Amino acid sequence: MTSADPAAAKPAPKDPWELPDVSGLTVGVLGGTGDQGRGLAYRLARAGQRVIIGSRSTERAETAAAELGHGVEGAENEECARRSDIVIVAVPWDGHAKTLEALRDVLVGKLVVDCVNPLGFDKKGAYALKPEEGSAAEQAAALLPESRVTAAFHHLSAVLLQDPEVEEIETDVMCLGEVRADVEQVQALAQRIPGMRGVFAGRLRNAHQVESLVANLISVNRRYKAHAGVRLTDI
């Protein structure tokens, strides 16, 4: 028997802000001893997330983890990736491909969040580089064909992330990926940090302009002596 009202048979549209619970997942941060990685690890751990920071050196990772506190653990990169449900890639651009190639097998099936910004610097300041694959995130997807690659956390100030006096960071995190459910997990992870919103921003083919915007933010911050991020309007 069919309904007299065709609209009654259609499921209600999902609320775009209805996101999964990721509080019980372990997050690994590759490059967790660098400024951006340390900042993300600190903020997520402070929000109650279980966090492991990775480094090529176990000793360096453990030292950085002890400095961060909040239950953060340190491990060599491979162990960090193996023990984590979500792996954030926060390594320097010049080590991006080499790091991911070395971890391809251990990252099979993992949700990988690439936040690397390919940038160059000269006397005029920062400028965007364009990898052969199109973006750092697309390079990650090419190198990790059996991982669930997404992109996010590009526009965050490492200074604000690491400052214990800053309670909230009012900014939006643009999240990209091929599978909506994976992107929603990343959005939910971003929203674990007070003040942040995780916003769906398209597929990985759109990652280049998101990564490149960091060059503009560096110019803004230098000119105005600020720690500007991104806030999207009307959503």
From TrEMBL:
- GO CC: one term? plasma membrane
The organism's superkingdom is given as Bacteria
- Quote the Pfam families the UniProt record gives: F420_oxidored (PF03807)
Q: What does the record give under GO molecular function? A: coenzyme F420 binding; cupric reductase (NADH) activity; ferric-chelate reductase (NADPH) activity; NADP binding; oxidoreductase activity, acting on NAD(P)H
Among the GO biological process terms of this entry, one is: copper ion import
Q: Tell me the keywords, alphabetical order.
A: Oxidoreductase
**Which intervals hold domain Pyrroline-5-carboxylate reductase catalytic N-terminal?**
26-118
The name of this protein is NADPH-dependent F420 reductase
Protein source organism: Streptomyces coryli
